[in-house]
Amino acid sequence: MSDHLVSIAINNFNYGRFVEDAIESALAQRYPHVEVIVVDDGSTDDSHRVIECYRDRVVTLYKENGGMASTHNAAFERAGGDLDVFLDADDTLLPSAAEQAARGATAGVSKVHWPMWVIDAEGRRSHVEPDEALPEGDLRELVLERGPYSHRVAHMSGNAWSRGFLETALPMPEETFRTGTDSYLSTLAPLEGAVRAVREPQAQYRIHGRNDWACDSV
Asked: Is the N or the C terminus of the chain less surrounded, counting Cβ atoms within 10 Å?
C-alpha cells in the first residue's frame, strides 16, 4: 500500500447542520496516513460549536469570510499531504476514498477523481453523478484542442489533487474565485499531469437546496 499522506481539508461556511457528517467521514478513512483540516470561512451559525468538539482530532482554522478560493489557499498552506482532498462541508467521503486516491497517485499524476452518490439533506441516496465513466490518462492534447469542457469532471469533493500540481496552481485569485474553484483546478490539472479515475463512487454529494457557496450572497 502507498504511504502517501492524504490531507482532507473540509471547507465550511454556515453548514453547521452538515459539517459533523463531513468531519466524521474524514476521520473514518480506513487508510492510515490521513490528516484532517477544517477551515471555517467566517460562519455565523453554530458551526464553531460543532467544529470545536473535534479540536483534539483535527486541525482547525478560523478565518474571516473570503470565499472558496481563500479557504483552499488557507488549507493548502497548512496541509502537509502528498495529496489534498478539498471536501465541501455538506458532502461526505466514503471510507475507502483516501486509500483509492493514494493508490492512484503514481508518479506524474496530477489528480485522481471519482464519481459520487447524490444524496438529499437527510443522506438518502438517489443516483451516481456523473452517469458516465470519468476519463483518465494523458488528457493534455484533448484539453488544448477542445478546451476545458472537453471531458467530464467530478465536483470538488470527487477529487484528490497532487501536491506538485497544487504548488503550481495555488494560491488561487481569491476575489475571482469566491465560487467555482473546482472548475479552476479541473481545467489546469490535465495540463500538469495525467489523470486517474476510480470507477466506484468514493464520496456523497449532498443536494439540499442551498448548495451555492453562501459567500456569494455577502
From this structure: N
User: 137, 194 in Cβ contact below 8 A?
Assistant: yes
Residue with cell 478513512: 29
How far apart (Å, rounded) are the C-alpha atoms in residues 27 and 18?
15
pLDDT, one tens digit per residue, over 19-78 is 999 999 999 999 999 999 999 999 999 999 999 999 999 999 999 999 999 999 999 999
The DSSP string of the chain is: -----EEEEEEESS-TTTHHHHHHHHHT-SSS-EEEEEEEES--SSHHHHHHTTTTTSEEEEE----HHHHHHHHHHH---SEEEEEETT-EE-TTHHHHHHHH--TTEEEEE--EEEE-TT--EEEEESSSPPP-B--HHHHHHH-TTSS----GGGEEEEHHHHHHH-S--TTTTSS-HHHHHHHHHHHHSEEEE-SS--EEEE--S--S-GGGG-
* Contact by Cβ (8 Å): 30, 61: no
* The pTM of the whole model exceeds 0.90: yes
